[in-house]
Amino acid sequence: MIEYILCLALFCIGLYCVLRKRNIIKIVIGLGIIEYAINLLFVLTSYRMNSRAPVLDKGVVITNMVDPLPHALVLTNIVIGLAVTALIVAIAIRLYEKYGTFDITKIRKLRG
Amino acid sequence: MVLGAIVAVEIEDLLSSVIAVGAVGLALSMGFLILKAPDLAIVQLVVEILCIIILIRATIKKDLSIIKNGRWFFNTFSTLLFIFCFLVFAYFALKELPSFGEPIMRVAKEYIRQGLSKTGATNIVSSIILDFRGYDTLGEATVLFTAVIGVLAIMRKVGRINEK
Question: What kind of architecture, by CATH, is found in domain A2-99?
Answer without folding.
Answer: Orthogonal Bundle (1.10)
